[in-house]
Structures are given as structure tokens and as C-alpha cells.
Amino acid sequence: MALLRVLTIGHSTRPIDEFIRLLTAHDVERVIDIRTKDQTPAQQAQTLLEPRKISFAAFHRTTKQGFADHIHAVAIGDPGLDPSAARQVEAYKNGRDGLKGNGPLDGPRVKITVFPLTWTRPSMM
Fold this sequence. Notes:
Layout (H helix, E strand, L loop, with lengths): L15 H10 L5 E5 L5 H13 L2 E6 L8 E6 L7 H11 L32
Antiparallel strand pairs: 1-3, 2-3
């Protein structure tokens, strides 16, 4: 059985670039959720944009959609995604929100033509 590593990193009041550095430093991959409840609309837009810049399909999930307010992001190009996460990536690529209703994508758009991240699984001894 492969081990699954789960990390939690508090965002608190860190600037988004520092938060992204924390994710990178700890090799966070696949799916991340970032709470945005206490952020201003401008901070929420920036929090949505940053994961998109580094090859994540990122969506702003809101209370109107039935979620606690957060950014949900899935790694683009990861061959090990479960089917629901893979469907969300495809929805993102097609400009959709990845939810059952297949609504339009929210927030600022980032065109990704080259996926800089390579997703590999560590070998288990």
C-alpha cells in the first residue's frame, strides 16, 4: 500500500507569494484548498490567480455554490489524479467551473500552453 502524505499549511496573513513558496518548499501537489472567507475581493482574485500561474486548475468555491468560501485547485498534468479531479482539470481547460452544472469559469483567466510541472510518484522502498 502506497503512503499518502497530507499536509496543512496555515495561510494566516501571509502574502500570496510567500504562501506559494511554502507550498513549493513542502512539495505540495495535486489538490489544494485555500480558505478565502476573511479575504477582500481583491485578495480572493489574487489567491485564485496564483495557483493558475503554476499549472493548477483553480476555482473559487463560494457559499452560493454550497461550499465554505475557498479556492479549490487541482494539479494540471498529474497522471495520478482520481477521475473527479481529472474531470475538473478538463472543465478548467474548457473554460468551465468543474461543478455539476458546468457553469462558466470564474475569475481571471490564465492561458497555459506549457505545463512546467512534472508530476512523479516517489518510489517506496
